[in-house]
Amino acid sequence: MKNIVIIATGGTIAGSGDIGKSADYAAGHFKVSDILESVPAIRSLASISTIQMCNVDSNDMNNERWIQLRDLIHTCAKDPNVDGIVVTHGTDTLEETAFFLNLTLHTEIPVVLTGSMRPATATSADGPMNLYQAVALACSDQAKGAGVLAVFSDTIYSGRDIRKSNSYKTDAFEIGHFGSLGYMRDDQVYFLSRSQRPHTITSPFSDMEIQTLPNVDIAYWHCGADLGLLDYLCQNNEGIVIAGSGSGNYGTSWRDHFHQLAKDHVIVRSSRVVQGIVFDSSYFDPDQDTIPSFTFSPHKAKILLMLALMKTKDKSQIREWFETL
Ligand code: ASP
What is the full DSSP assignment across 17-68? Predict the structure, then answer.
């Protein structure tokens, strides 16, 4: 039997509310050992050990917790008896943690994130099945070297492309333009595709020592957005990501200001639009002061920019990473 470690961080999968109801609950209530008791079938898949790293709503994940989680996974992965790792996590920011790990873990053993939309106390809670399938995927040889994965509602996602797209339904993650990697049927794994982009051991950031991360924040463009916001963010951060409209766009007030700000800061143009791609723009950035985020959402662009800034401030190198990772 394979040995799987479940690292619990909290989220709705550990949430508690009124018995039978799915609204108005507190995330991060039950311990992972309690959750496991509600899924006895997991014991037939693998020998399980557990680590309760924290028990928080995933909006309280942060740089320190990402680094702590990365270190914990590296420690587990060094044990030759460990075959795979499952991370339980809130759905709100699961994609941020998954993306961070996808770029920074130096291991090929399966690492699978999962969570739930309904708390453990709800009627038809979705956590038990998601956890069962995450353990099954972590046991699969097909998941080795596939990068950080996530399982949700019978679907396998890549840590690079997973994105929450529904704030309410149990099928909360987007299949979208980049698609899922495959399906689960109970404990059976059906991979249909693999991410072609560098990840884990082929990522330029996976062999880095990470103790802290540089400050990067996001400026959200909307009609009439305050110019002072950009100055404030630049005073407090090494880099900023713009969540622009359309293909990474903004009004003339912001456009005229970036030329000045880009002298001391790395600025990435991303988009608040969910689907699509952001390229260079001769109209919105005539002097090429900014770096386009290509396929990355603002919050994933923020993570990539933090990691990039740990290595260099060279804009052409950072641009290449945005285009190729
Ligand atoms: N607010 C919760 C969290 O992200 C939502 C969830 O887990 O689904 O922790």
Answer: ESTB--SSEESS-S-HHHHHHT-GGGGGTEEEEEEEEEEE-GGG--HHHHHH
Closest residue to atom 3 of ligand 1, CA basis: 90
Ligand 1 centroid–CA 115 distance in Å is: 8
* pLDDT value at residue 176: 72
Angle, helices 298-311/94-104, rounded to nearest 10 degrees: 30
Q: Which residues pair with 267 in a beta bridge?
A: 240
d(CA 116, CA 17): 14
Q: How far apart are CA 290 and CA 258, in angstroms?
A: 8
Separation CA 96–CA 307 (nearest Å): 13
Say which residues have a Cβ less than 8 Å from residue 55's Cβ, sequence separation at least 6. Answer: 8, 9, 10, 14, 28, 29, 31
Lining ligand 1 with CB less than 6 A are: 11-12, 27, 57-58, 90-92, 115, 117
Distance CA 90, CA 12 (A): 6
Predicted confidence (pLDDT) per residue in 152-202, tens digit: 999 999 999 999 999 999 999 987 778 799 999 999 999 999 999 999 999
Average pLDDT over residues 201-207: 98
Structural domains present in the chain: 2-202 (3.40.50.1170), 216-324 (3.40.50.40)
Q: Active-site residue 202, yes or no? A: no
**How many C-beta atoms surround the C-beta of residue 219 within 10 A?**
21
Q: How high is the pLDDT of residue 287?
A: 94
